[in-house]
Amino acid sequence: MRRALFAVLTCALLLPGCKKDELEKALEEANAKLEATQRDLDAERNKNRELKNENDQLKQKIAELDQEIKVLEGQLDDLAKEAGMTKAELEELRKEKAKRLAELQVYRDLFASLKKLVDAGTIQVEFRKGMLVVKLSSAILFDSGKTSLKDEGQAALAELAGALRQVAGRDFLVSGHTDNVPIKTARFKSNWELSTARAVEVVKFMIESGMDPSHIGAAGFGENDPVADNSTDEGRAQNRRIEVVLLPKLGNIPGLKEMLMGGKKS
Hints:
alpha+beta; 11% strand; elongated
């Protein structure tokens, strides 16, 4: 009996100590959670401050760029005044620059689409007399003194027509050229007739291959526009050729219409 009472008393004495340990542990856990929450809150506040600072910096940069643009515009206006130009004339210059850049992009895109034929040696592309010119040797297209297209010539022209069709709203001139060796047959009295007939034959085939007939024409130059020396076989071979010329897009030239109409405005 005494032993049982001693055990009960011992438990009674120990119980408050056990309860205290549990409470202290719970308090420590609560404090730890509170500290973690405080750290998260502080981190979020810091992040918000950083975002605000970045936002303020972006606004500052935009304001600086706006100011730079205004300064540059002012400088352009000053230059225009120094050159005796009006704002309208300056704007015209800007439009002209935009046109030139657009024209350059047309050339770049066309050359990219022709690169396969260039790499294969089927055609040559060059700038001559301020225009983009695609050259094809007559040897690929025609037999000597003939105007009927050979199979390999048709294949080359079909591929060329596919590339040129991608250049919307532009005009092309197919020009025939010969060497300086005179020709005189029942059909062709001179190189003029031969070069023109060949150009027409190429145009007809390219139209059949999908080219818009309202944007392509033919011309014959005979031996009058050589690109090489006619005194050698190699030079004469280079001069016997067909060229497809991308005609420049001049647009409206201020004052030209009035000049043609004798100063009258329509």
